[in-house]
């Protein structure tokens, strides 16, 4: 696979070409994903749930994300690799810089932070210091105790308007990608059209520029529950490599996510 960079993703947004991405935590799966031409990988703090069996992501540490980032980079030299900043690792801009450095030196191309316009100073500080940033909006799982559960976000008018404003503020601060999780499809479409940076959705309908799934959900093997917006491609394809290429093809064609996997 040819090396994928932020410029590749921006060009795809401009061309209206949809792209797939998936989480990865180790070298073997990272290699399999790259062999199937998966352009973007994320070392997600979802590893607290799917690898460690916890009920949420809050106990994941920066050193754990760095460890898995090194493994994924070893297996996939050419994907665009994002890595999650875990809970409380970016409480201040200074902490964000110190911790992001660990992920960048482990091989990440971009770090992902959960939150709205309160992140503006951190995003500026990181991007000015050459750390590319992805901002994660909507259902931000590190806020599960604030939300009172893993619930769809942005359902009422005020919350939807706030999310659009957050996306614009984060883009202006220097964020180069947005992840939108569990939001109504109309809101996802509005945000995707409002910003010029690529938007990657999960539980946000087929209107975003890219899609992402947790790899264990894509294979239907998660220790936790299977979210409604996910699809078990291994069950459909019967083979891991075939499952991955089927997922990529269905994202590119717009077939996934279907209305069954979408919130209105
Ligand atoms: O941790 C994760 O896997 C994520 C994706 C679901 C976007 O943040
Ligand atoms: Na995450």
TrEMBL record:
Q: Which GO terms describe its molecular function?
A: 3-methyl-2-oxobutanoate hydroxymethyltransferase activity; magnesium ion binding; methyltransferase activity
Question: Which compartment or compartments is the protein found in?
Answer: Cytoplasm
Q: Which residues bind 3-methyl-2-oxobutanoate?
A: 45-46, 84, 112
Q: What reaction does this enzyme carry out catalytically?
A: (6R)-5,10-methylene-5,6,7,8-tetrahydrofolate + 3-methyl-2-oxobutanoate + H2O = 2-dehydropantoate + (6S)-5,6,7,8-tetrahydrofolate
| Pfam families per record | Pantoate_transf (PF02548)
> What SUPFAM superfamilies does the record tag this protein with?
Phosphoenolpyruvate/pyruvate domain
EC id: 2.1.2.11
Protein's pathway: Cofactor biosynthesis; (R)-pantothenate biosynthesis; (R)-pantoate from 3-methyl-2-oxobutanoate: step 1/2
Where mainly located?
cytoplasm
Q: Which Gene3D superfamilies match?
A: Phosphoenolpyruvate-binding domains
| Residues that bind Mg(2+) | 45, 84, 114
Q: Which UniProt keywords apply?
A: Cytoplasm, Magnesium, Metal-binding, Methyltransferase, Pantothenate biosynthesis, Transferase
Task: Kindly list the cofactors needed.
Answer: Mg(2+)
Q: Which residues form the active site?
A: 181
- Check the record and name the InterPro entries matching this protein: Pantoate_hydroxy_MeTrfase, Pyrv/PenolPyrv_kinase-like_dom, Pyrv_kinase-like_dom_sf
Q: Which Gene Ontology cellular-component terms appear in the entry?
A: cytoplasm
GO BP terms, alphabetized: methylation; pantothenate biosynthetic process
So what family is this one in?
Belongs to the PanB family.
The record's listing under HAMAP family reads:
PanB
What role does this protein play? Catalyzes the reversible reaction in which hydroxymethyl group from 5,10-methylenetetrahydrofolate is transferred onto alpha-ketoisovalerate to form ketopantoate.
The subunit field of the Swiss-Prot or TrEMBL record says:
Homodecamer; pentamer of dimers.
Q: What is this protein called?
A: 3-methyl-2-oxobutanoate hydroxymethyltransferase
According to its UniProt entry, this protein's organism is Veronia pacifica
């Amino acid at each position: 696979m040819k090396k994928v960079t932020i410029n590749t993703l921006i060009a795809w947004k401009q061309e209206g070409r949809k792209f797939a991405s998936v989480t990865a935590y180790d070298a073997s799966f990272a290699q399999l994903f790259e062999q199937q031409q998966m352009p973007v990988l994320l070392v997600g703090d979802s590893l607290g749930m799917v690898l460690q069996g916890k009920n949420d992501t809050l106990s994941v540490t920066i050193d754990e994300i760095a460890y898995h980032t090194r493994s994924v980079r070893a297996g996939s030299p050419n994907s665009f690799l994002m890595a999650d900043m875990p809970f409380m690792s970016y409480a201040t801009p200074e902490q964000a810089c110190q911790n992001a450095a660990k992920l960048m030196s482990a091989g990440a191309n971009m770090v992902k932070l959960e939150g709205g316009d309160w992140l503006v100073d951190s995003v500026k500080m990181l991007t000015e210091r050459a750390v590319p940033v992805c901002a994660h909006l909507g259902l931000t799982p590190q806020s599960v105790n604030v939300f009172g559960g893993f619930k769809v976000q942005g359902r009422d008018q005020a919350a939807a308007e706030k999310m659009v404003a957050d996306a614009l503020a984060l883009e202006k601060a220097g964020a180069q990608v947005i992840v939108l999780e569990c939001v109504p499809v109309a809101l996802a479409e509005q945000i995707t059209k409002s910003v010029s940076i690529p938007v990657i959705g999960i539980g946000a309908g087929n209107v975003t520029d890219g899609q992402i799934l947790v790899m264990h959900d894509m294979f239907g093997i998660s220790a936790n529950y299977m979210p409604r917006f996910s699809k078990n491609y291994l069950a459909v394809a019967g083979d891991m490599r075939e499952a991955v290429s089927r997922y990529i093809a269905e994202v590119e064609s717009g077939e996934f996510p279907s209305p069954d996997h979408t919130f209105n």
